[in-house]
Amino acid sequence: NRSRGILDIDMMKCTFESDDKANVKISGIARRYVEHFQKMKANGKGLLFFGDTGVGKSFIAACIANALIDKGYKCLVTNFPRIINELSGLYEGKQEYINDLNRYELLVIDDLAIERDTEYTAEIVQNVVDSRYRAGLPMIVTTNLKISELMQPHDIRKKRLYSRLKEMCLMIEVSGEDRREKQFYEN
Fold this sequence. Notes:
Blueprint: H1 9-12, H2 24-35, H3 37-42, E1 46-50, H4 57-70, E2 75-78, H5 80-88, H6 94-100, E3 106-112, H7 119-135, E4 139-143, H8 147-151, H9 156-168, E5 169-173, H10 179-186
Parallel strand pairs: 1-4, 1-5, 2-3, 3-4
């Protein structure tokens, strides 16, 4: 629910207690991030989880947000299509909406690069990221982009965006089997 900062009911169920620890390294990184959040927040440092679909990036990002919410921090888990949809409905106050995202001590952006690739969308994405950067606030970002796409994008807009994210976030590759595909076959 929105008061919890988790907009997706399934994301509310993502906790370290429900982690199957199939990726012990990633689980450990996530737990340490929560343990040291005060320092990470003071340095404006977030995490960028990248890797194939279904390997647990969104799950572990939501685990972090839920653990921090339980500790009293204000966190929001969302994605750019949702932000863009909300902004599209506003005639005025678009910048205020973006600035309002900075009331959250941690902003989790799930599935970066699923949003439509338009000038308008690129401007919104850059504005949200820059707003967090200038406020010195951390973000956690998940994406299916490959390391080569993050390191050497061909588009100047993406180059600028990914450069900023690399400065703001520790980049962590998440690998493993596609859990959703495995669940599909088990069902």
